[in-house]
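Give me structure tokens for this 347-residue protein.
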Amino acid sequence: MAATESPPLAHIVSTGSALPGDPIDNATLGERLGMDRLWEQWVATFVGTLGRHLSFDLDTGKPLGTLADLGEQAGRAALESGGIAPGEIDAVVLGTATPDMLMPATVNIVADRLGIDGVPTYQLQSGCTGAVQALSLGAKLAADPDTRRVLVLAGDSCTKHFDLEMDFRALPPTQLINCVLFGDGAGAVVLSGEPEPDSIAIRRILTRLVGGGRAPGHELDWFGPADRADSRPAVAEDFKAVEESVPALAVEIVTELLDDVDWAAGEVDFLLPPQLSGRMTERIVAGLGLPGAEEVSCVDEVGNCGNALPLLQLDRLRDRIAPGDRALAVAVESSKWLKGGLALEAV
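Here you go.
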């Protein structure tokens, strides 16, 4: 039996997304950080991120919301768009690198706010492939006859690590780049084990650690009272390693997905590429060998909001994909180097 004839792993029934506050453009961000116009031009030319959404007021530093707030908004949007009541959800999964607290788990706060209770809940901690991992677990749960529908959430509040009192002009490029790249957001999908009207079949899910013996490309630290005065940065990134490795890993993911589902490159209608930054996404797309696929990207508008991005892309894809269309989604995590990907087909 051909791979494309195998039963789908799960079906995406509905989607939702949430972004905090108004978009912050580079000029506004640069002015607040004390940077000059040359910095703004550098961001536009070499990074390609034009805006982002932040979970705090840029002028006062006052928080505007939490990851639980974003997850609640995205989850509610997914339920409402699918006409699904909270009582129809049989499990909830959240993928994030930045939970609000160590305990209680953010997934349980979100479920409670949505009126979901008495069901299994899971929270996965991971970087940019965490959304794919959450979908993988959600699909396995949805395949259980006793679990009809699963709410899968993914998001990050990356900018909680900003310190507006620091001298940003004195930061080394490895730290300053993070002030440009990242934003906050959350996405949600409802998965079903059975096809439903206008659903999107998940034909293949790829998630794999490939960083054995390699140094992390991205580190996100967690400080407690005992080490709060430590001088090490909370966020550190080897951007050169990311630039070198992510495009090659993206090619490997596309190749493996196409082989697994027995699709030709020309049969892919939509591409959801990795979303590190606008310029990086351009480079990756150019090297993937899918010129006929329509790109679904949003990182240039919303910044790198981590785990939210694959689900934000799925939310945008849902309004564009038609029955019979095929799509590939690609995610790469540079923390300890993980591959993630999806092969999708509208039914």
